Amino acid sequence: MAQNGKLKKNLLYNISYQILVIILPLITAPYVSRVLGSHNVGVYSYTQAFANYFYLFTMLGVNNYGNRTIAAVRDDQYKLSKTFWEIFSFQFLLGLIISFGYFIYCLYFIRTDKIIYLMQFFYVVSGVFDVNWLCFGLEKFKFTTMRSTIIRIGMAVSTFVFVKDQNDLAIYTFILAGGNLLAVLAIWPFIKKHVDFVRPTIKGILVHLKPNLLLFWPVIAVSLYNIMDKLMLGAMNTKEEVGFYTYAERITQIPNTLILALDSVIMPRMSNLLAKKDSDTAVFLMDNVMMFAMLMAAAMSFGLAAVGPTFAPWFYGAEFSRCGLFIVMLSPIIIFKGWAGALRTQYIIPAKKDRIYIISLTSGAIINLIINFILIPKIEGIGAVIGTIVAELTVCSIQFFMVRKEVHVTEYIKNGISFCLIGFVMYIVISNIRNVFDIPLVIMGVQVILGSIIYMLLAVLYMIKIKKNPTLVNEVLKLLHIKKKFEMK
Known about the structure:
There is one protein chain. This protein is mainly alpha-helical. Helix content is about 85%, strand content about 0%. Helix 3 (about 75-110) packs antiparallel against helix 5. The radius of gyration is 23 Å and the shape is globular. It starts with a helix and ends with a helix.
């Protein structure tokens, strides 16, 4: 019972933080887009995407690997401490080399917007000290939530205070990059309270090299269609188009951030349960997480598609009207990423099915690069959108196919399609509201309220029908029995 209460608290902390992550950019973005303009927004997005590649090499696959490994050994203080210092030592040494390489490259090879690239150095070096994976593996979400909340609020306030016109792009970049570094440094007092110092050995460090590299390739693969599209778009087109695409993508990432809040809380618990071979509780948790992910992803995807054309110019300004088209086109990735993310974090990674993870993301990355090379020169940002959608669909499909014999894939897909049909009905109704009202805020308000009522009503009716389905009675009873066992622990 205590474990169940802890899980609920962690979920509350993480959801609260993820909501803050969503709200603060929503507060600052309209101001930034109007003050800096589409070109400067594009420059920031392009340089941040470039710096992000160095950051990824600094972190390798440690976020997923460290989380999973710490969760498996956290009940043994010596093993926990030894494992932490071995993984971090590898991360620290590699991070110093990568950060130095980035600084030298910017200093001697960058010609345009050099100061902006140099400001992004603080973001790159934050990867050297980022040990959030330890907190997640220990399920210590309260500390990370409070720390990040304070720093992010400070970053938002600093943006309003110090960013005044288009000449302040360097200041804006420093605030975000420096804030990210400060956030990871602030976690180190927590480390001393929960981890003893155990001198790492070369042999101990090298033990973690191979599994880290195995989980690093999927990170790079994901970056090829989450980051490379911006770099390719900026190289083949204009920085303004990068800004439009980035701001549209940022909006479509919000729903997946909320879904990920649940996934990241449950993943260390799943890793711990699978390490203990408690498969019944693991199945119960996974089935419920998948139902939640599919319910929320469909609602947010179709809802955002309906609201997007009105939202973009109202929120970012008339200069960013093109974002509305990109938001509508990108909305399906909420479904594909939500479903695949839940399956990946609740089963594939905790169960150490790294091969599935690697194959699916590699396939998505290759397809995305091919589509980008073909379409971006011809149809600009729309080509990048199409590449991203096809890539995410590919990743989702491969992952579901490769675990079809191990989890309840048939039921997941059946429920997911049903929720998508419900979402489509909602979309048809609320998308026509744009023709009834003239005031953007009124249009969006009516769309959100009416859409929520329609979707939840139909979704509840569907779930009631599921429980009355004779073929699922045994499964429902089984889950109820498992839940009872879970709560008694």
